[in-house]
Amino acid sequence: MSYSVGQVAGFAGVTVRTLHHYDDIGLLVPSERSHAGHRRYSDADLDRLQQILFYRELGFPLDEVAVLLDDPAADPRAHLRRQHELLTARIERLQKMAAAVEHAMEARSMGINLTPEEKFEVFGDFDPDQYEEEVQERWGDTDAYRQSRERTASYTKEDWQRIQAETDELTRRFVALMEAGEPADSEAAMDAAEEHRQGISRNHYDCGYEMHTCLGEMYVSDERFTRNLDQARPGFAAYLRDAILANAARHTS
Description:
Elements: E1 3-4, H1 5-12, H2 16-24, E2 32-33, E3 39-41, H3 43-57, H4 62-69, H5 76-109, H6 116-123, H7 132-139, H8 143-152, H9 157-179, H10 187-203, H11 209-221, H12 223-229, H13 236-252
Antiparallel strand pairs: 1-3, 2-3
Helix pairs in contact: 1-2, 3-4, 6-9, 9-10, 10-13, 11-12, 11-13
């Protein structure tokens, strides 16, 4: 069975002019010609066109596509394996790009108007806005959420660096307490938890003890929070949660 150039153009979503060009440069020469000299494409030609369009989608120049397809050492399975590897790599790149765009959108909605260089300088590989969706879902209609957006909208790079330095120092204190064997409900741990709460109130929103305990529970119930916190020391997320709960009980009992 054979197909006209118009039919093939319709199947593949390309123009007739494109198919004529592929024929002219020897990339896709139709297997047959009609009595009137019109191009007729076979199923094998359609398979080759599919391969051409795949490599073109990945950005390969036509001359390189021709080399790839005409390699006598390559069989169809080799082409499929290569295409699978290339497609997988592209998917990963696109996923990273999509994530970066999402984070940029979140940062803009939170008023974090830092340049990309400044974000890396301040936060390293930790994105401070990656949990914005969960925060908005849980507290988007609260005064605390609105207060946080209003405050952070005016923050500069230096403000974020100060906040990050405070966070890092407090984390080091908690880790030191853990390594010293201090229980999470010890005075020292509860004092550190109180500083954690006050830092949130000072830099983001008025964080009462009830809100603080909600945050503590989220640190262990959401594996992403847990994974990030436990980078400082395994078990840190749970220790911080327990210290927060003990501190809240101390102040509200």
